[in-house]
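To assess whether the prediction recovers the assembly geometry, we first specified each molecular entity separately, as shown.
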Amino acid sequence: MLTPGATIGILGGGQLARMLAMAGARLGLKAHIFSPGANEPAFDVCAARTLAEYDDETALKAFAEAVDVITYEFENVPAATAEFLAARRPVRPNPQVLALTQDRLVEKQFVQSLGIETAAFTEVADAGALARGVAKLGRPSILKTRRLGYDGKGQILLQGGADLAVTFRALGGAPCILESFVQFSKEISVVAARGADGAFRAYDVCENVHEHHILATTTTPASIRPETADRAVEIAQKIAQAADYVGVLAVELFVIERAVGPVWEKLVVNEIAPRVHNSGHWTLDGATTSQFEQHMRAVAGWPLGATRRHGRATMRNLIGVDANGWRELLQEDGACVHLYGKSEVRPGRKMGHVTRVTPETP
Amino acid sequence: MLTPGATIGILGGGQLARMLAMAGARLGLKAHIFSPGANEPAFDVCAARTLAEYDDETALKAFAEAVDVITYEFENVPAATAEFLAARRPVRPNPQVLALTQDRLVEKQFVQSLGIETAAFTEVADAGALARGVAKLGRPSILKTRRLGYDGKGQILLQGGADLAVTFRALGGAPCILESFVQFSKEISVVAARGADGAFRAYDVCENVHEHHILATTTTPASIRPETADRAVEIAQKIAQAADYVGVLAVELFVIERAVGPVWEKLVVNEIAPRVHNSGHWTLDGATTSQFEQHMRAVAGWPLGATRRHGRATMRNLIGVDANGWRELLQEDGACVHLYGKSEVRPGRKMGHVTRVTPETP
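The predicted structure of the complete assembly is given in tokenized form:
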């Protein structure tokens, strides 16, 4: 258990690290940011910074010696970096979680091994395996690289007629996974935390809308049946326990609804994010404890905070030029505006977000 | 009007500057902290820092050139410093406000000139004037230095029998003001903001309890009559307008209650704080826009944010060894814990605060 004044090292310097650093500071914890990128958003709000590559062992060693515990803002921290650091300081969540979530195939196998449903999938090592996979799963299906995809990058939707050899080459011939296309009615996520003592606390389930493969809005609570929400939280808890997880994680799920016959909602796990998550940003303005503070509490070995909502929360991402609307947003009564301090506006780049919290209508 | 990415210079590096810097960062604003003290709490959360004395003109010049607008976390910034900087960059609130609030005599005269009631007072330049003042105002009365007092420092309560010459010398022979002792039933404060465009927004009135002359707890809303609350806010607005104020200010008032006869509550202004204020810390967890964000918005020339409460808020300061109770506080469901990152615990030192927000009971 850390004491106030301790330093938490954070790998990555983007907006998640920025909000983690500030949440830690609220609690009297110092943040030391390690990132290869100059002008990182998190550099503006931290007690110490290291600008170095993830394979710079001299810098990693000095970083480890300067901090008390280490966490990360993204799941693509190189495994070798995490292991190098874990030999010197506690890394939370543990590096095995990185190995698990960096590979879509391993992640899906892990989830299924817990008795939790995912989309049907099959490993695709070459074009021949892709043909066999499509024969098995049918179309539409989605070919994804096993590693390094995010925001829709590294994936291709296979509809009728697509040339499989061309498709496989389009992803660079990288090891892939083929997933059957899930006809979902809603995308939801569970943002939850597990403490070093095994305590588990989830926020109310979030409902997410993506545009161009990037999260556009999150509304909490999700408009799903109470028993579906309970089941989603149970799934997240099962995953967190099985991974001996410490920190905040997000589990993204599809809700499959049947309109005809007795109404039911089925859940299928889409992805695990071993970190604070965009769909939890509303907690900064809409919950007693933000997901960022919750993560820092867990990483520090401290008790988890309350996850109560102040009302119904809607978070909208400010993507690319959306951020140019900051004047109007600041004028809007009750809009909680967050800008990440990124100097350059680029298409698809997350520049900020805005959260609106309104009283619950029972 | 600043644009996101601009830098706000802050004079002072204590917890108020720390919370201002973080609130600015939420909005994509960078903070540059100027302070003579090493290990300042705000140094851990800012984009740039200058460690220099307030009369170091080389440092002040470089600071002014590095920032877009300047504000301060405390009213005792030397007047010469403020003027030197104001010749180079906008200083908000304007330095005249500092002159006004640094001198208790000038401040009280200003308030009275607006037709707002204060305690009866008289100037005390020497021991002879003190004797005349006591003859006029009676006892108990309070002798205060005109400048540099805070948290009960620089003031002496004159009760029956005190030797006046000794009392005057006890305050170092500094220019003083004698105030009649106000028999108040409650201490309240109005935390409010005025924008660069003259817009004015107040939070609900706070009720404060002091222990050993230091703020112990603030509860919002104050348990006063609605018309008293309205009058308190009107007073704050009148003061802000007359001072052409830009930023957050706090007006501390005494409520005088008459138990016998028709019930009434009279208001007397005690003090003006030209800055974010300890009695507004609850807004971090209990209001749509925190006082810190509100101040940064005003200083940036941006629209003010909504001041709505999420519920009934109680803030308790963690003074000195109180902060050693952090483990218990972190365990308490719904307690929002703030620690200021001060390494050394000293008696009377503000180490942090905790806010509890509970649903309003109508």
